[in-house]
Amino acid sequence: MATEEYGAKDLAVLEGLDAVRKRPGMYIGTTDSQGLMHCLWEIIDNSVDEALAGFCDDIVVTLHTDGSVEVADNGRGIPVDKEPKTGLSGVEVVLTKLHAGAKFGNSSYNAVGGLHGVGSSVVNALSSRLDVEVDRDGQTHHMAFHQGHPGVYSDADPANPSPDAPFKRTRKNRPTELEIIGKVSPKTTGTRIRYWADPEIFNKTAKFSYEQLVDRVRQTSFLVPGLKITIVDENVPEESSATVPVAPATASDDLTTVMDGFSTVIPSEVEESQASSETSTEAASISNTSVTIDDGAFGKQPNHPRVAEFRHTGGVKDFVDFLSKGEPISDIWRIQGEGTYKEETQAVGAGGELHAQEIERTCGIDIALRWVNGYDTTIMSFVNIVETPGGGTHVDGFMNSITKQIRKAVEDNARKLKVNLKDNAMRVERDDIQAGLVAVVTARVAEPQFQGQTKDVLGTAQVKPIVTRITDKQFGEMITGSKRGFKDQSARVLEKIVGEMHARIQSRKAKEVTRRKNALESASMPAKLSDCQPGNDDVAELFIVEGDSALGTAKAARNAGFQALLPIRGKILNVQKASITQMLSNKECAAIIQVVGAGSGQSFDIEQSRYHKVIMMTDADVDGAHIRILLLTLFYRYMRPLIEHGYVYAAVPPLHRIALTGSRKGEYIYTYSDDELAGKLAELDRQHIGYADDIQRYKGLGEMDADQLADTTMDPRTRMLRRIRMEDAAQASEIFSLLMGDDVPPRKQFIVDNADDFDRSKIDT
């Protein structure tokens, strides 16, 4: 067998930025949309680092019509003098040399996001063209690059540079002089970088996301108080340049189903197909309110303003307030402090050599948190201004500390909170604490250690004990109520957490006894449940019926093979205003949770649901509408996956019955609103069809006989159901808080503002 020769001639040496172009994934993760956005973050973060150092307060990100992106700041500007070791200008060193920059030293930057020294040079390497302008020393300096190599472009129109213009590359080993293209005030400094992503590197599916840009810029404005960041999209016409916010999305007038688009009336036989094709209307807003924007490439009729500005002064406290959705349980609590630690690192000597050096570091932490009604958890963490979605040592220290302090507070107040310390199951778990928790955890660290260039997880071990120590002291005073003004708040927080614990324990027990496996198991259900026959789990329906009179009729009208009935007495507890403990103590709420059989809160498991349709069958009047919204509030707050998976419906009982006469005697027409009744009667008159003058108006479901109830409301072949939809969870949460919460003035204002647009038909159907 012949052997191949293998020698030094077979080794390839990639110099400079060629290695980046060969293996881009090592530096930006991927070459799809994620990598495309990562390049932009690197350039923006360099400008934000100037703001963190106290030298910049204004950043402008411009999206040009040719697909290029420009980031401008009023920082100190990249150095333009010669770097002694290479003989190149500071601009060329920063943009062409990997692991080069002031962030390796200990004097220019104390806490930065881009600390590996590869950000700008990697973006340069992966761009078909990059132009940089620097204002320093009273002059504007300019330099251009093609795929990371310096040179000169011969643009036909200098005002409209193009990556396709002729390019003359600077010869190797020849220093490239910065071109001076203008003069500025000696006090004017800053950097402007404009680049075109290289289509040879990024795949065809790579797509720029304006929504991601807005989210990142907004969060940065929270993390660097006082910094103004402006996004200018030149793809949007000039006439759309106003920065006035678009009116935020509001609830519809449909008090039955809470918001327009949240539910849809559909005939039973086509309910599945039609429901899946529906869409909801969403409104976008810019400035300091939420933004809902469709992703789009440049030049594709953007659905957003031309100019969006972001500036906040409250820091992480404002951030938590922005992230909070739902009724607040507590005010926003703030934890701040700093600590020092020693770390051995490689320092750069005067001659450029590396040597080990032990230095003392300072770690500052700034944490804001609050609890809101509900069980969703929102914890965002950052090191300097870099988001760490994977958490890290700063988040571990925070969570370990609040878990320890809350457990201690629960033990100290066990009798008041009705916690049996002898029961090993009654132990607060982290999931109980995180339910409804909104927190932003930030750490300021010089030269933090991340896991990889993408910086998803903080790995600096010394940060954890500092965060733990500071949180132990400050949060401990808050949760025990010993800090002034926190006694009532801490009591509410502890009550909520203990309620979550009880809900988790009860859900676990419920799952053990509520799965329908045989007839004997059904006996463990509430006595008032009229269950269906076992073995039909995939089509089983649960009707929640208003009142005993309607229950009697429904029993005769139902198909016992797959339709179960659970009566409720009038209006159930408003869980928006009640604590979890109160909800679990309410017989009606507890019965619904037990019968559904999938648990509640964070432990809810949609796969364990005993029914694939949960149908609210209430009277066609205002009281019935109120009962429906109370039930929806229970489902949304504690069994939300039922709504998310389309399991929740509202029956649509008729309001009137028209009895025909003459040749059509014995036939009946049902109508569902007063307007529909008037229209139907007019139509019958035009067609000369006789009908009885005594139009029956149903005051309740109990007035119907079994056949009528079956035909109009329960028989899948003839009934109509309203499927409850939830297209926008954040908007739904706000609407539930508005309509069902304790704060009366906003609800009153909502009614006043929407009174003119009120559609009565949505109530009476």
Percent helix: 25-40%
Strand content: 15-25%
Radius of gyration in whole Å, from Cα? 33 Å
User: What's the total helix number?
Assistant: 23
CATH class of the largest domain: Alpha Beta
User: What overall geometry do the principal axes of the alpha carbons give?
Assistant: globular
Oligomer category: single chain
Helix and strand content put the structural class at: alpha+beta
CATH architecture of the largest domain: 2-Layer Sandwich
Poorly predicted tracts of residues: 102-109, 112-117, 244-299, 514-523
Q: Could you give the count of β-strands?
A: 24
CATH superfamily of the largest domain: Histidine kinase-like ATPase, C-terminal domain
Main sheet record: 10 strands, mixed
Average pLDDT taken over every residue:
81
* Terminal-residue CA separation: 85 Å
CATH T-level topology of the largest domain: Heat Shock Protein 90
Tell me the count of domains: 3
Region (Disordered): 151-171, 270-302
Biased composition (Low complexity): 273-290
Catalytic activity: ATP-dependent breakage, passage and rejoining of double-stranded DNA
InterPro entries: DNA_gyrase_B_C (IPR002288), HATPase_C_sf (IPR036890), HATPase_dom (IPR003594), Ribosomal_Su5_D2-typ_SF (IPR020568), Ribsml_uS5_D2-typ_fold_subgr (IPR014721), Topo_IIA (IPR001241), Topo_IIA-like_dom_sf (IPR013760), Topo_IIA_B (IPR000565)
